[in-house]
Amino acid sequence: MNLPNKLTVLRMVLIVPFVIALLAGRGEGSARWIALAIFIIASLTDMLDGQIARKYNLITDFGKFMDPLADKLLVCSALICLVDLKRLPTWICIVIIAREFVISGFRLVASDNGIVIAASMWGKVKTVTQMAMVILMLVNLPQLKSLTTLVMYLACALTIISLVDYIVKNRQVISMQK
Q1: Structural domains counted in the chain
Q2: What are 108-143's pLDDT values in tens digits?
Q3: Structure confidence by residue, pLDDT tens digits, 74-109
Q4: What is the band of 178 on the pLDDT scale with cuts at 50, 70, 90?
C-alpha cells in the first residue's frame, strides 16, 4: 500500500463526511462550505496520487483499478446529492452514472481476461470537468449560473465522448465473451 494508493483510499473515505455535510445542511450555510472543502480535498487527491505514482514509478494494478473507481464513487455520490438538492437535472446524473456502469463492466471483463485497462485521456478530462461542475454547483452562486450550466453540458458531452472512445479503443474486450 504505497502513498498513491493510500490517497486513493482516502478519496473514498472522504465521500462519507462529504455526503453527510452536504445533505445535513441541505447544501446551504456553513455545511455547504464544509462539503465543498471536503470535495475539493478529495478531488485534489486524484491529481496528486497520479503525479506521485508516475514520478516515483509507483504505478500498481491496484491503483489502475481503484483510482478510477474512487473517482466514480466521489463524483456519483456528489451527483446524486445534487439531484436531491434540485441543482442537477436527473437525466444528466443518469447519463453520467450509466457511463460509469458500462466502463466498470468493461473493466471487469478485461480483468477476468488478465487485462488491466488504465484511464484514458478523455476519461481524465471528463473527470476533471465533472469535478469542476460539482464544485460550481456546490458554490451555487447566481453570478455563476451561466458558467455552471455551460460546464454541466460540457461534462455531459465529455461523458458521452469518453464512453465512445473507451468502447472503440477496447472493443476487443467484447469479443472475449464466449
Answers
A1: 1
A2: 888 888 877 777 899 889 989 999 999 999 999 999
A3: 999 999 999 999 999 999 999 999 999 998 888 888
A4: low
N- to C-terminal Cα distance for the chain? 35
- Cβ atoms of 42 and 15 within 8 Å: the answer is yes
The answer to whether residues 81 and 23 touch, using CB atoms and an 8 Å cutoff, is: yes
CATH, residue 35: 1.20.120.1760
Whole-model pTM: value is: 0.88
Q: Would you state the pLDDT for residue 6? A: 96
For the purposes of burial, counting CB atoms within 10 Å of the CB of 60, is it exposed (0-12), middle (13-18) or buried (19 or more)? middle
The residue among 105, 110, 118, 3 whose CA lies nearest residue 66 is 118
Residue type, 81: C
Contact 40, 135 (CB under 8 A): yes
Range of the domain at 170: 3-175
d(CA 11, CA 1): 15
Q: Copy the grid coordinates of residue 12.
A: 473514498
